[in-house]
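Researcher: First entry.
Model:
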Amino acid sequence: MFRVKICGITNVGDGIACAEAGADALGFNFCAASPRCLTLELASEICESLPLEVARVGVFVNESVERIRLVAEILRLDWVQLHGDEPPEAIVQMGSYSPGIADGHRVVSSEPVPCSQRSFRVLRAFRQLDPEFQSVLAYLDKCQRLGALPDAVLVDAYQVGAYGGTGKTVNWSTASRLSRKLAALDDGQATVQKSDGVRDPAPPCNSVELATPGLAQPLSMALAGGLRPDNVAEAIRIVRPAAVDTASGVETSPGRKDARLVREFVERARYAFGRLLSDSDTCSV
């Protein structure tokens, strides 16, 4: 999974600047109500300007599955982020029959396709609707009963009438507990080895919890909501997420990124993730 995502990219210059700053994922917003919404044509132009190693993430809010899969095919998206009120059945319809995805042919079909043929991963975003994220756990439980867990989870702040990009923060303490519940433990070890070879940070020593009861597979969690250069390191230290995501925290205005803030955000986030891995290595000695 990616580590640092800059969301709400609206122009080629910002996309290139974020990639050069070291962001390993960029988000493209296709929600018409968002000030960061962009056209498919512009998104394609930006994607073509990016290095191949930068993950392309399409952000959708209550969009049809057919539209999402079509956009994912045209842009060759690596991730599809569902950031609205999409039911678990929507993940089923996109062919997410099990967690994870194998590289395969990029196809668009009116029918769900097996994971081995689906070209993108599904990142399910949740706003903090309740203090302990019980609604998130209930949603994931239903996904599993349908045989369609997302590939990863993102948590964001809640604000009436908005689906993200508000600059509000989530409760980091409760987000930390959710992250630990979703993380897998390898026979009690303090680090998690993912199928793509990336080791995710695990809970701190003497603070290990079992994965969420009932989930057959671990889920990585990305943290969003009000993250800025001046607080991202502390957020990572407390929450211990697999990834962080920001939009308004590195902007001069909605959709316009500040290159200096982007560089600071990426540098501080990567340093904080490095500290987590160092702490995990110490725990395992």
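Researcher: Second entry.
Model:
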Amino acid sequence: MASMNTTDNFTAQMAEVSARARTAAKILARTTAQVRNHALHAAAEALRAAEPEILAANARDLAGFSGSPAFADRLMLNQARVAAMATGLEEVAALPDPLARTLARWSRPNGLEICRIAQPIGVLGMIYESRPNVGADAAAIALKSGNAILLRGGSESFFSGQAIHTAMVRGLRAAALPEACVQVAPSAERGFVGAMLAAAGGLDLMIPRGGKALVERVQREARMPVLAHAQGLNHTYVHAAADFSMARAVLANAKMRRTGVCGATETLLLDAAIAADLLPLLAADLHALGCTLLLDPAAQKILPELTAAKPEDFDTEWLDAVLNVAIVQDVAGALAHIATHGSEHTDAIITQDVAVAEVFLAQVGSAVSLWNASTQFCDGGEFGFGAEIGIATGRVQARGPVGPEQLTTFRYVVRGNGQVRP
């Protein structure tokens, strides 16, 4: 008998993985919150104990990495980041049980009592790039919400992902849960991604977290629903009534705290009424932090020595120390610019004018909008979720940081006393 070709091998591997996950998911869905929380606490301790092994694996990944400094920062783990992963698992465990919720209850005139009750989605697939801590965060949120998960990280973080997964499995064992509740893809080859996307009936929801090309491929090829994480084409709009000191501090953080995260600001919008006074200050602050500014024509009139922005720059997620700058007339102009160039991820306004702020917050339409705060607060941990599985920018299932509650669906329970339908 001829051996299977590569595609058939991937398909067979995926069938085995999804079958194990389906069995594990049925067991996990019937567990108590105490059991799931025990697994998370045990996994957190295992992460801390395995710090040397995780950092050694990460060093191996970094040694083979040749991308930009911003992407290297996404890939890099250190003691603080391993500790933060472990703490994140404990914070997820401390959240209320998302499955112990009656979402609605009502009675019908015929005496039927109807309840809408939260339940897990089932088996999740997640494809992500660069950041190895995403695997721990996703596993924690999946476990808390009673879902099994299959993780396929990028080849650049292969060894880190394996080491983190080993710690997660130790937590599952400690709680006597099936190891298949959290699995990593058995192959690092790109062809296995195609098998995942084709696994209708094996995976209930696909979650891509990475660059535009990855997300577009998943949305195009997936045979199951997709919870998409789009580009972070984020804006900070500084209104004419902004406090200058606040604007300078918030913008520096929003752009430069970590340039490679999806919550980083990519475009500054500045009201024309204050641009001549404030833009030189902002530019000096950012220059001192190593940031390059790309200016529209109105901004270039104020700072002609800086680089002119090309039209396509305002549609670019830099994930680097580069910031677009555009001058607008008012909040309407800012909203129009965001509607044209934004990705409905995260957008902020800096102003002391309450009425203008409320107009912006009501009309911007992004998954997350902020007033007088850095766009880098778009983060599951900062929202009190402990961690996040991604930032959803679609309009179905969930929006913004996705925590355990957002990875549940519901079912109906109907109680009667002998009713028959006429």
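Model: Note on the second entry: Residues 234-377 form a domain with the Aldehyde Dehydrogenase; Chain A, domain 2 fold (CATH 3.40.309.10).
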